[in-house]
Amino acid sequence: GLGIPAEPLFRSSYEAYFFVYTDCYNQVYEHTLSGNNVTMSNPVNIVLSPPADLVPTIVTAPNTISTAESFTYSFRVNNVGAGHTNGDNWVDKVYLSQNPNALDGNAILLKTHNRHGKLYANGYYTVNETLSLPNSVAAGNYYLCVYADADNSVFEYLYDDNNVAYSSAIEITQPDLQVTQINAPEQITSGYPMNLSYTLANNGNGIINNRNVADRICISASGSMTDTIGLATVRRNLTLQPGQSLTVMCNDLAPYNLNEGTYHLIVVTDSKHQINESDEGNNTLHHYPMPIMH
Fold first, then answer.
1. End-to-end CA gap in the chain
2. Over the stretch 248-269, which tens digit does the pLDDT of each residue have?
3. pLDDT, mean over the chain
4. CB 215 within 8 A of CB 196
5. Peptide bond before 185: cis, by omega within 30 degrees of 0?
6. I want to staple 265 with a disulfide (CB 3.0 to 4.6 A). Which of 32, 134, 170, 290 is the partner?
7. HEC string of 2-24?
8. What is the pLDDT of residues 159-181, one digit of tens each?
9. Rounded to an integer, what distance in angstroms lies between the CA atom of residue 77 and that of residue 127?
10. Nearest-CA neighbor of 221 among 272, 187, 180, 266?
């Protein structure tokens, strides 16, 4: 069978002709008789098959998202056209955009959803997804954007101008994790265990919701992070509301093979940079002086 292309002037029907060209590569010697190798059909009326028309709608999206939590959204794609999709596979893409009117170059791709199977007239499908924001996202007002058939795999005739849907405004917030206090002995003895505690506070406006965080405890003779000696790494799944704080207890830390002197005891929270914060520069606190004896 032959596939008939859509008419380039976008008419739903048009008159066309079929041509048959025999020996089109001139492989047969016909002397002067090759002028009749082309035959044209009578006029044929080409009627366009009813096209699909994919229209997305965002069903659910949060009003506020913290950069340190997961969130859930859902969208629905309806075929409001008179015909089914001409293909079985296409992709829908979900973006985060600060422009509610157009997908520009600043939009951030969050997820690509693969669709398998024809969608018939008046049919629909729904997609639900839970994910986290990439670390490149800063605080501000954004919009969730769904682009149905983003790669234009489905023929929709004149109806490609309604394939994008936007959510209502979403406020993106960011936490700010800080070490606000260190409680340590007045002095310690090299090779003997010590106990200490430190306080973590979320001084940002975004929640930290069940995120894996690693805190590093170390000492330094100079106060620089370049000559630190590690004492412990504290790992936990952290949940901390804006304005909330918690105290972390660390027992039986034993610094070995240290010269006598005065040191800096240093606590670095989120040392692996696993949380997207409003200020990454205030995650470190020094306790000084920390005398170490033999």
1. 92
2. 999 999 888 889 999 999 999 9
3. 92
4. no
5. no
6. 290
7. CCCCCCCCCCCEEEECCEEECCC
8. 999 999 999 999 999 999 999 99
9. 8
10. 266
What confidence tens digit (pLDDT) does each residue in 21-33 have? 999 888 999 888 8
* β-sheet bridge partners, residue 114: 91
Q: Is 162 helix (H, G, I), strand (E, B) or coil?
A: helix
Q: Which two tokens stand for residue 51?
A: 């096209």
* pLDDT bucket at 9, cuts 50 / 70 / 90: very low
Both tokens assigned to 47 = 């009627």
Q: 161 in helix, strand or coil?
A: helix
Tokens of 65: 């998202």
**Which H/E stretch holds residue 169?**
none
Residue 13 has pLDDT above 80, yes or no: no
**Nearest Cα to 87, choosing from 156, 174, 179?**
156
- DSSP one-letter string for 41-73: PPPEEEEPPPPP-EEEEEEE--SEEETBSEEEE
